[in-house]
Amino acid sequence: MKNIMRLLLAFFLPVMLTVACGSSDSLGIQEAWARPAAAGSNSAAYFRIENHTKTEDVLLSAETDIATAELHLSSMDENGVMSMQKQASVPVPAAGNLEFKPGGLHIMLIGLRQDLKPGDTVALTLKFEKTGNMTVQVPVREP
Ligand SMILES: [Cu+2]
To answer: For 2-119, where are the E strands, in sequence order?
Structure first.
């Protein structure tokens, strides 16, 4: 009887572990939000990308129906002047996080085709080299 149990465990344990890990074996987008702004002006979206895989991925671009979306990096020069540069792509480290936050990386939403008011939601599609497309529902809120 003991041997049969051991045999069953040996067979099922790897299966159970695979199922348990399956849901986290991917990218996760956490704490997404976008700045309120009026139609015709610009906004920005922020979030944290959690890479639960053992390989690096690369964020290639972002897309939304409501504006032109670009990957931007804000930085401050030695005179304390803030500026931002468009990024061709942004690497997401293996088993690590990548933070998009005010003053750093952000998704620039250029030429809004509608008002963004607190409580609105923006559907934002992120295109990754390995993972492919991920669409996130981004709530609009005050910073
Ligand atoms: Cu920007």
So the answer is: 27-34, 43-51, 57-63, 68-76, 82-86, 90-92, 97-100, 105-110
Residue 137 sits at the vertex; the CA angle it makes with 132 and 138, to the nearest 5 degrees, is 110
In the predicted model, what is the mean pLDDT of the chain? Answer: 89
Residue 55 has pLDDT above 90, yes or no: yes
Q: Taking residues 22-29, what's their average pLDDT?
A: 74
Taking the centre of ligand 1 as the mean of its atom positions, its distance from the CA of residue 101, in whole angstroms, is: 11
Residue ranges near ligand 1 (ion) with Cβ within 5 Å: 72, 84, 108
Residue 69 Cα to ligand 1 midpoint, Å, equals 9
